[in-house]
C-alpha cells in the first residue's frame, strides 16, 4: 500500500545542530530523513558523506522508525553501495544518468540489504522508468536541477509524475526540490506520495503543522485514486 511519507532534506539543517534538528523533525511527524550526498562531480556542490550518516544512524538507529533515504548525487554510485549497506541506511537512490548499467546496480543495492530508488534529473524522460519500475522500490522525480537546496519548484515535471503514477500504481513516487505549502497541491495531485522538503520544514516555525499539511494533502489524493484505503 502506498501512503504519504514526509522526508525532510537535511541539506536545509543548521549542520552544527544536525542531530537535534533531525530528532525534532522526527518527533514532529517525519518518518523519513532525506540524506543528500553530493560529490562535486555529478553535481556542482559537495555536501556530506559516510561519517555524518554513520553518526546520524548511531543517534537514530534502525528500528527507531526513521527511514534513512540516501539520495546519491554522485558519479560512479556503484563505488558506495557496500559502505552504505554496512552503515544500515534503508534506501539507496541512484541517478539514472550516473550509471551505464542500472540493472546491475539495482541488483548490487538489493544484495547489500537496501531498498532501491532511481532518480531522474529534470531533462530525463519518464519513459526510462518503463523498464525499471517493477525492479525498484521508489522513483524520484527531481523538481529542481540537483545540487542545491532552496530552488524553485518546476511544475512542468508534474506530467512526468502523473505518467509514472499511472503506470506503477503501487510504487513509492518521490518529488524533491522546492516542495512546500505553496507547491504541495501540484505534487499531490500528480500522484507523488513521498515528499522531500528541506527549506519548507527546517525553516518553518511550526514544523509539525507543515508536516501534517503535506501528509494530509498526499493522503487525500491517494484516497481519491483508491490507493489508500484505510
Ligand atoms: O536534492 C536536492 C537538491 O539537489 C534537494 O533535496 C533539496 O535539498 C531540497 O531542498 P528544498 O528545495 O526543499 O529546500
Bound molecules: 5-O-phosphono-D-xylulose
- Rg computed from alpha carbons, rounded to a whole number of angstroms: 16 Å
At CATH's second level, what is the architecture? Alpha-Beta Barrel
Shape verdict? globular
Average pLDDT score: 97
Low-confidence spans: none
Largest sheet, strands/sense/barrel: 8 strands, parallel
N-end to C-end Cα span: 10 Å
Strand content: 15-25%
What's the arrangement of strands in the largest beta sheet?
1-8-7-6-5-4-3-2
Q: Give the count of helical stretches.
A: 8
Total number of distinct structural domains: 1
Assembly classification: single chain
Q: CATH first level: which class?
A: Alpha Beta
CATH topology, what is it called? TIM Barrel
Helix/strand class: alpha/beta
CATH superfamily: Aldolase class I
* Sequence of secondary-structure elements: EHEHEHEHEEHEHEHH
Can you describe this structure in just a few lines?
The chain has 230 residues and is of the alpha/beta class.
What does this protein structure show overall?
The chain is α/β, with parallel strands linked by helices. The chain has a single domain (5-224), classed as Aldolase class I (TIM Barrel). It contains 8 helices and 8 strands. It has helices at 18-27, 50-59, 81-86, 102-111, 158-167, 184-190, 199-202, 207-224; strands at residues 5-8, 32-38, 67-73, 91-95, 115-120, 138-142, 172-176, 194-197. Strand 6 (138-142), helix 5 (158-167) and strand 7 form a beta-alpha-beta unit. Helix 5 (158-167) runs parallel beside helix 6 (184-190) and helix 6 (184-190) runs parallel beside helix 8. The structure holds 5-O-phosphono-D-xylulose.
Amino acid at each position: 500500500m502506498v501512503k504519504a511519507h514526509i522526508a525532510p532534506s537535511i541539506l536545509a539543517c543548521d549542520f552544527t545542530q544536525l542531530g537535534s534538528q533531525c530528532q525534532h523533525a522526527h518527533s514532529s511527524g517525519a518518518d523519513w530523513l532525506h540524506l543528500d550526498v553530493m560529490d562535486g562531480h555529478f553535481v556542482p556542490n559537495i555536501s556530506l558523506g559516510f561519517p555524518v550518516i554513520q553518526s546520524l544512524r548511531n543517534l537514530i538507529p534502525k528500528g527507531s522508525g526513521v527511514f534513512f533515504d540516501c539520495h546519491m548525487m554522485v558519479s560512479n554510485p556503484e563505488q558506495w553501495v557496500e559502505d552504505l549497506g554496512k552503515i544500515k541506511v534503508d534506501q539507496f537512490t541512484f541517478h539514472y544518468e550516473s550509471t551505464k548499467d542500472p540493472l546491475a546496480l539495482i541488483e548490487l543495492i538489493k544484495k547489500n540489504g537496501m531498498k532501491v530508488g532511481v532518480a531522474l534529473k529534470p531533462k530525463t524522460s519518464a519513459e526510462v522508468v518503463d523498464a525499471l519500475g517493477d525492479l525498484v522500490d521508489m522513483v524520484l522525480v527531481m523538481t529542481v536541477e540537483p545540487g542545491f537546496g532552496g530552488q524553485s519548484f518546476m511544475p512542468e515535471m508534474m506530467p512526468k509524475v502523473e505518467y509514472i503514477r499511472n503506470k506503477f500504481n503501487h510504487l513509492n513516487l518521490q518529488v524533491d526540490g522546492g516542495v512546500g505549502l505553496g507547491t504541495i497541491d501540484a505534487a499531490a495531485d500528480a500522484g507523488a506520495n513521498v515528499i522531500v522538503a528541506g527549506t519548507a520544514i527546517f525553516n518553518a516555525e511550526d514544523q509539525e503543522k507543515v508536516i501534517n499539511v503535506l501528509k494530509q494533502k498526499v493522503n487525500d489524493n491517494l484516497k481519491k485514486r483508491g490507493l489508500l484505503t484505510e
